[in-house]
Amino acid sequence: MVNMNELNNLDVSMLEQKAKSLKSELFTLKFSKLTGQVKDTSLYGKLRVAIAQTLTVLKAKQDVVGSSKTK
Questions:
Q1: Could you give the dihedral angle defined by the CA atoms of residues 9, 45, 48 and 57, in that order, rounded to the nearest 10 degrees?
Q2: CA dihedral of residues 22, 25, 27, 32 (deg, nearest 10)
Q3: What is the structure's pLDDT at 70?
Q4: What are the sequence ranges of the domains in the chain?
Q5: By the 8 A CB rule, do 37 and 5 touch?
Q6: Residue in 35, 59, 51 with CA at minimum distance from that of residue 43
């Protein structure tokens, strides 16, 4: 789903958009499950991992930007 090399190459605003998009996709998947339309339940885990990876890279980049502003 998400390639760590791609995430590392994105800037902070793009990472925020990516995280928002993945969260929206997970939300949609949860409703699809309620209606019985989900065939591959492994997507839940994959999306949660992708969200976590995206937020981890985002937090690291925000820390770098924040620490460079304070110097």
A1: -30
A2: -160
A3: 66
A4: 4-65
A5: no
A6: 51
